[in-house]
Amino acid sequence: MAKLSKPKPKTKAKPAKRRLSPKEKQRIQALFDRFAAATADPRTELQFKSPYTLVVAVALSAQATDVSVNKATAKLFAVADTPQKMLKLSEAGLIPYIASIGLFRTKAKNVIALSRIVVEQYGGEVPLQREALMSLPGVGRKTASVVLNELDIEPAIAVDTHVFRVSHRLKLSNGKTPDQVEHDLMAIVPTPYLTRAHHWLILHGRYICLARKPKCEICPIADLCPSRELFL
Fold first, then answer.
1. N or C terminus: which one in the chain shows less Cβ crowding within 10 Å?
2. Is 10 part of the annotated catalytic residue set?
3. Which is the catalytic residue, given 33, 71, 160, 171?
4. How distant, in Å, are the alpha carbons of 82, 90, 94 from that of 105?
5. Could you confirm whether 142 is annotated as catalytic?
6. What digits encode the pLDDT tens for the residues 184-196?
7. Is 19 left (phi over 0), alpha (psi -120 to 50) or beta?
8. Helix intervals (H) in the chain
9. pTM: predicted TM-score of the whole model, two decimal places
């Protein structure tokens, strides 16, 4: 009896790269030129002392505001700013510091687990390679992108709710998932601006292009925004 050949596993097709007209390339260049002129070197608003505390802060910021995370970590990092100190603090000891942040029990469990791995597998130093970072508990693609980009290790665009919203309103992407939006942005953002694009889009969404009522009347890129007529 002849053996049936096993079906080959399906490979996930990469989304097609978006083709831009010269006019659209010019518009996108102008968008980021203006962002750069307004804020030359934007950085995360999360407070951190080291790669380790940055990873912890970003992991804690999921479904929470940077302001709330900074309030918690100001006291937390005063007593536990290394993985060794965090393990000594323990999960039970960590919870009171972050109880004001959403999903604090799950986050406390992840922070202790990732701290143990950093100590046992990486000699107490946070690994700064994407795959290694993403293998840590509570560290997904978005968190890894924020860390690598903030530390100037790898150009990356972490797509949160602000970046997702702004990218659609500016017609930089019509992706239906954060991964699709990230792919689109990485392909069209002018190369010199890739390391800061993430922050510009976040800040624009946080302070100008608000979810319910964007401040189009004071927006520095309103004339370049295809969605402005919807809100003016």
1. N
2. no
3. 160
4. 20, 12, 9
5. yes
6. 999 999 999 999 9
7. beta
8. 22-38, 51-60, 66-79, 83-98, 104-122, 130-134, 141-150, 161-169, 178-188, 194-207, 228-231
9. 0.83
